[in-house]
Design brief:
The structure is a single chain. By secondary structure, the chain is an all-alpha fold. The protein has 8 helices and no strands. The radius of gyration is 20 Å and the shape is globular.
Length: 240
């Protein structure tokens, strides 16, 4: 009788955990989808204004500002989301989404101006497929991916250095293509790693309130946007 009762309690606990995890992850992906919508809206509004785009890319401050903002928020935003207020968590996330929109806008304007806007949609759907597949792997795999952390951090840091060096010094189209290919490979792994980490936050009983969902969306959104930009770059080279 005790075994039956204990088994029933354990079974109820597992069902409760599964349902709670589903709701938690749904919150993460909902915030992420809203972030993508905000970035897309900002990018499209800017891309439709030729004078604003030209002014933006001709000024070093406004040209590099979104990139610097994304780096800063990417490194420090997570800590602020967890340690600050709920209002601050929301502010960081939506600012991050808007900064990505600012960064993407010039590329969208250029592609639309040369009559190749369809490539944007192809890049988005390819990105969604890559992201969805790798995130699903990170969620379902029984293998621990936590050992990837240090390697992925160093790889990401090296790619940031390579992107900056190519933009300022080498200005090589071939290097840009190679970097984009490596970025897609690395951030596919990052997506799986982050998804498993977000899942473990719940399973280990960490704080899983609204700020935790925002934190998870913040991480995954950055990976999605990075994949999109570099897949778009690869498709541009393939077109040429």
């Amino acid at each position: 009788m005790n075994d039956f009762r204990n088994g029933g309690i354990a079974s109820t606990g597992v069902r409760s955990l599964d349902e709670g995890l589903r709701q938690y992850m749904l919150g993460v992906y909902n915030y992420m989808a809203l972030g993508i919508g905000v970035s897309g809206l900002v990018a499209m509004l800017l891309a439709g204004n030729q004078e604003l785009i030209i002014s933006m890319v001709s000024n070093p401050i406004t040209r590099w500002g979104p990139f610097v903002a994304i780096l800063g928020l990417g490194f420090f935003g997570g800590k602020v989301i967890f340690s600050g207020s709920k209002v601050m968590a929301h502010a960081i996330f939506w600012l991050y989404a808007a900064a990505w929109g600012l960064l993407i806008a010039p590329s969208l304007y250029f592609l639309q101006s040369v009559g190749d806007g369809a490539i944007i949609y192809r890049a988005f759907f390819i990105t969604a497929a890559v992201f969805g597949g790798t995130s699903l792997y990170g969620y379902t795999t029984k293998k621990s991916l936590m050992g990837w952390g240090n390697f992925l951090f160093m790889a990401t840091f090296g790619l940031v250095v390579a992107i900056i060096a190519n933009a300022l010094i080498f200005k090589s189209s071939m290097m840009s293509l190679i970097v984009s290919c490596v970025v897609v490979l690395v951030f596919s792994a990052v997506t799986a790693y982050e998804t498993q980490m977000i899942k473990r936050l719940y399973e280990e009983g960490s704080d899983t309130n609204d700020r935790a969902s925002i934190f998870g969306a913040f991480m995954l959104f950055g990976s999605f946007a990075t994949l999109f930009i570099h897949i778009l770059n690869i498709l541009g080279f393939m077109r040429d």
